[in-house]
Prior knowledge:
Structural class: alpha/beta
Distance between the termini: 13 Å
Strand content: 15-25%
Mean pLDDT: 94
CATH architecture of the domain at 4-29 and 82-114 and 163-210: 3-Layer(aba) Sandwich
Shape: globular
Number of helices: 8
Low-confidence stretches: none
Bound molecules: zinc ion
Radius of gyration: 19 Å
CATH class of the domain at 4-29 and 82-114 and 163-210: Alpha Beta
Largest sheet: 5 strands, parallel
Amino acid sequence: MKKYRLILLGPPGAGKGTVAKKIAEKYQIPQISTGDIFREAAKSGSELGSRVKRIMESGELVPDDLTISLVKERLGKKDTERGFILDGFPRTIIQADSLSEITSIDAVINFNIPREEIIRRLSGRRICSQCGAIYHVTDFPPKVEGICDICGGKLYQRDDDKIESIEKRLNVYEKQTLPLIEYYRTKGILYDIDSSVNPDYSMEQIGKILS
Length: 211
Ligand SMILES: [Zn+2]
């Protein structure tokens, strides 16, 4: 049986979340993020879980050894038989090395998109203050500027979507991820895609890589 054990790497605004959902559906494999793993563990009441819960409640970062134990536990579940999509993990070379002791990885998909396009996508985002609906000033504008089509609520821009904040997030991402890109490129399993067009085009490229 062919397996799809995948890692997705991509900056905020690259459409990674949407594409991950499409991959999960097409290849029938679970999308695994450390955020979900932490929340599930905290709910489970296991010993590891209660450690995670205490750390999250204190607002600290979950340490590497604990994260890796939880990822290992998750990857041992039956729904990963055909593979999985790791999103947001690994973040560091240390994590990547530990992961390689747990499982093989078939492909690392690296989402490429120009900085200006990310800024355009994220800075144009507007959110309804009442129902949470998401708009975009040029790509998906409401019928009346600044007003939600669904509930008539006022639209606003999240602080995270302001240009200075986007720049900051991109700098953090690049600093953190460049070493990982090189790490997986050296191993010969890194595949670059152009994610500046739309999710369908990203899927088309990923389909070719995985076939
Ligand atoms: Zn609304």
